[in-house]
Amino acid sequence: xxxxxxxxxxxxxxxxxxxxxxxxxxxxxxxxxxxxxxxxxxxxxxxxxxxxxxxxxxxxxxxxxxxxxxxxxxxxxxxxxxxxxxxxxxxxxxxxxxxxxxxxxxxxxxxxxxxxxxxxxxxxxxxxxxxxxxxxxxxxxxxxxxxxxxxxxxxxxxxxxxxxxxxxxxxxxxxxxxxxxxxxxxxxxxxxxxxxxxxxxxxxxxxxxxxxxxxxxxxxx
Length: 221
Description:
Elements: H1 2-28, H2 35-43, H3 45-66, H4 75-106, H5 117-139, H6 145-173, H7 179-217
């Protein structure tokens, strides 16, 4: 199971790097698509930070779901990691949804001049803590918090895409300057989170099926 987790993580990272990054460049750019634009994106530190965050989230969820060692970790440790991982991605989804709605309604003026990088990171941090606490309090006694985390991430990514895609169409038709960058990031991150939730979902189903087979194969006493 752990080897399959590594395989899924590798393919997830490959999809994010090879498919989603060029797709994000295509969505942002108003000029004809070229390989030089993609190369510039790969040279950007921000690209690798976002890819690293997405892959790290996949690793954490897969590590929790495919851990088949005999040493059982404390449930509190598992739920804490699940809560923090889920809270981080839900915080990102929440901020992107709010920004996409504001930009679709008011264009580039939807983000006031007083809002800067510090304000956005502060909002992300506050929402991260709020979502983490909510998830922890709701599912701290659940037998499988990873399944709950995956369900939340999938629903959050669907909501993000339902908001970001129409918002991106609106701001591109209006020829806004900076708004398409935010909305295209919303589409990119929404797809990345959706794909992230598929990996643990598949392995959880596979693990449950193997455990069922193992129980059926046990000799009757």
